[in-house]
Predict the structure.
Amino acid sequence: MKLYEYQGKELFKQYDISVPDGKVVEEENGLEDVKIPFPWVMKAQVLVGGRGKAGGIKFVENMHEAKKAFHELMGMEIKGNKVKKILVEEALEITEEYYISIILDRSKRSYLLMFSQEGGVDIESVADEKILKIYVNPLIGIQDYQLRKLKNREIAKIAKKLYKLFKEKDCELVEINPLVVANGKVMAADSKIIIDDGALYRHEELPKVEEEFTELEREAREKGIAFVQLGGNIGVIANGAGLTMATLDALNEYGGKGGVFLDLGGTDDPEKVKQAFELMKKANPKVIFLNLFGGITKCDTVAKGVKAVLDKEGIECPVVARIKGMNEEEAMEILKGAVITIPSFHEAAKKASELGV
Ligand code: GDP
Ligand code: MN
C-alpha cells in the first residue's frame, strides 16, 4: 500500500524527522484556515511519481494566487490520477537537496539504504558511483559504523530514525527525495512510503489508502477480471499471473512493451472471456497477444469467447495467438483464419513485439 505524501510526512513527524509546516486542503474554503505565512508551496497529492515535472507543484505569494493555483491543481490529472487533495506548505528556502531511501533488496537478503548528494531528481538518473549504498543485515539492524559513512551526523540521525520507521511499519520502501537543508535545518520536503500489503493486518493505526484505478481497470474489477494498464502498445491476455509476467518479459526481450495485461486466471466460462476481450479492445492496443496454456482454463473456452467478439463486432488490430494445452486443437480450429496463430512462445512474442511498435 502506498501512502500519500502528507500521510508519509505525518509518519515522519511521529519518528521525529522534521517536515515543513503544512495542511491538507480539499476545498477552496479550506485555504482560509491555513495559518502558515506566505509564500506557500501547493502540492497535488497523487500516488504516482514525477508530479513536479507534471506541473503538480505551485509556488504562491498570496491568497489570490493560492486560489488560482488551487483550481488549477484540482482540475489536473497526473498519469490518469485525479487530484483530490492538496498539501499546502510553507515554501522553503532550499540550499541543498539530497536523496535518501531504504528498500528491501531481496536478492541480497538485506535492507538497502541509499544516499546521494544529488537529490530532487529521479534516483534512476543519478550515476551509480554517486550513490552511497549501505546494506543492512535485517537481523542486527543498522550499525553506527555504517551510519558514519553518511555525509554528517545530522543525516546519520535521520537515517537511523528512517530505519526505525521502515522496520516498525513493515515498509517495502521509504524515500525522502529531496531531503533538504533549509535555513540550516535538515527536513523531508517529500515522502514516499510503501507498506508491505502482507503486514497491513498488524497496522490498524495506518490510514487505509485505496489504490487509484483507471476507468477501464475499475470496470474490470467490477467484473472480477484482473486487468492492469501500463504504458505500452501491446495488449497481453494470458492465464495465470506467472504466464502473464513471463509474457511481458518475453515481449520486453524483443523490444515490445506490454501496454495492458489481463489475466484470465482459471475460468471455464466463454462469456467471461468475451467480457475480458471486449475490455481489452476498449484499451485500444496496437496488437493483442493471446498467450494461453490450457488447463483449468481450457483453450477452446477462451477461443469461443474471443471468436464471439470477433464475429459480432470485429477488431481493428491484429491478434497474435499462441495456444498450448488442454483442447488446443479445438481452439485452433475455432480461431482459424481469424487470428495469427504461432505455436512457439518466443516466435509469437517476437511477432507481437514487431506489430506493437
Ligand atoms: P515530486 O516531483 O513529486 O517528487 O515532488 P517533490 O516534492 O520532490 O518536489 C519537487 C521539487 O520541487 C523539489 O526537488 C524541490 O526542488 C522543489 N520544491 C518542493 N518543495 C519546495 C519548497 O518548499 N521550496 C522550494 N524552493 N522548492 C521546493
Ligand atoms: Mn520527490
Remarks:
- The first helix runs from residue 5 to 14.
- The radius of gyration is 25 Å.
